[in-house]
Write a structure and sequence with these properties.
Elements lengths: L2 H23 L2 H6 L10 H24 L5 H22 L4 H22 L1
Subcellular location: Membrane
Main location: membrane
Keywords: Membrane, Transmembrane, Transmembrane helix
């Protein structure tokens, strides 16, 4: 694996593991109070599900390649995270929020998509 793959994979996994864990352990009201107003549009279960998808994606990006067991799952997990970011961008756009969250989400989405390419290359 290239150094670029490991750098992108580690940063991506760290970002999604942190974001997903936060959604899993904090209440919907706590998240909304912390600036995640988008949670108002979703049920508490949906917010937890989004957090779970992010945590599973973060683990899926690193563990298969690290263990050598089904390493093809790493780029698949990365594409899944990229699609998650597409959904997040749509939610923020529909809410007509500032461009700042969309830029962060776009960067994460592009990084996730690039990870799949780096794995194949």
């Amino acid at each position: 694996m290239t150094i670029a793959f490991w750098v992108v994979a580690a940063l991506l996994a760290l970002a999604f593991l942190g974001a997903g864990t936060m959604k899993l352990i904090r209440s919907k009201q706590s998240l909304a109070g912390a600036g995640m107003a988008w949670t108002e549009d979703f049920s508490a279960r949906a917010v937890k599900a989004i957090g779970a998808v992010e945590v599973v994606g973060a683990v899926g990006v690193l563990v298969p390649v690290l263990t050598g067991v089904a390493p093809i799952l790493s780029p698949i997990a990365a594409v899944g995270l990229a699609l998650t970011m597409v959904g997040a961008i749509v939610v923020h756009a529909r809410r007509k929020e500032s461009a700042t969250p969309a830029v962060v989400l776009l960067v994460l989405g592009v990084a996730a998509a690039a990870l799949g390419f780096l794995f194949v290359a």
